[in-house]
Structure formats: C-alpha cells, structure tokens
Structure prediction request, 223 residues.
Amino acid sequence: MPTDRRSIEAALQAVADDFGGEAKPTILFENGRKHVREIQRIIAALPLNGTLLDVGGGLGVNVLAVRRLRPDTKLLLADGFVEYDSGNRMGSADRGLRLLEAAGVETIAIDFWPDLQLQIESGTVHVATSFDVIEHLPGPALQHLSEIRRTLRSDGVLILASPNAASLMKRVRQAFGAHPYIDFELWLKQPYHQHYREYTISEHTELLQRSGSWSNTFIAAMP
Prediction:
C-alpha cells in the first residue's frame, strides 16, 4: 500500500473522522503536522509484517493510522489512559479503547512511574516509539528507556521525541518572562499530567547512552 505523504494524511483524516467531536480538530489541525512527521518516521523504519510498540501513545492516533497503512503490522500500545475523560478534547478512554480494539491493536494499561514493566517478550519489537513521554516522568527516564530497549530486536529501532528544553523559541519566550516549563495554575492542578523536566538534544543522547546499548535510534527534540 502506498505510504507517501498524501496517503498518510488520508489515513490520519480517517482516524480523525472515527474519533469525531473535539478530537477531530485536535488531531488534524492542532497536532496534524506532528502526527504526519511521526507516522512518516514509523513507516520508514517498520518492515513488512513487523511489530510496532508505541509507549505512551495516548488513545493511539499514530497506531490507528499505521493500521490503515500497514494492515499486516502487529501493533502494541502501552499507556496509563488516566487523563482521558469527558473533559479531555480527545474524549474518554472508553471511546479510544473501542477504536483500538476494533483495529486489532493490543493495548497495555500500565503505570510508567516509578518503574515501567512491559509484559512483552524480549527482543521481539521491530520499532518502538516514545513521543512526548519522558518529559512527563517525575524523575530520570533511564529505567523507562532500558525497559523499552529490552523489548527491541537486535536490529530494532527506537524513535524518541520530546520537547527541546533549549530551543530558540523557548529562549525567546523566557526572555519575555515566560516560565520554561508550565503555566503556574496547571502546576497547582491535581492530578498533574504536565511536564516535570524537559531535556536538551545532548541530554537526550546522554539518556540513551546511560540506559543501554542501542543499535538504531532517531531523536527528534521538538521546539
């Protein structure tokens, strides 16, 4: 099946239509470019009949799009799903989980902190993704990354992305008085699901070096 940008955008549109409601503009407009970039990287790394593990993928927008593009792929999604309720623009966890089940995605409801423990056989995953996850952990991501590494084949690929703490955009905002992490009111809100610590690009590399032996990684530190 073709996996050019137009095909990816069409798959993303179909996923957004399935979610409907407020989730649709959130997927297509607020996060549309980001989703397309992520799916492009996944498809480029994923072999036919391969296995994809998405750690912290929320309600599975990326994996649902990959299912439409790669129907042969085994898809695994691990997330806590705790932030998805009627007040979340993506909708309730129940709604997302029904879509994932209908698409044949194996979901793993799991806590990420303090120890990530994936009930997945070692060395079986072709591509693992962790998009915008490690900045939400209350401490270092070393065990988190090590556990993901355990699941990967020797030639497996990790695609890691999170905000770049030292981006030009952030430095400009801070020069005008913005806080480097999160709005004060969100920091006070409980339960807290926002950022604890963002990393620079060099720190992303250091985390990987200290968490195991990686054969293939792609780091995408976002603005």
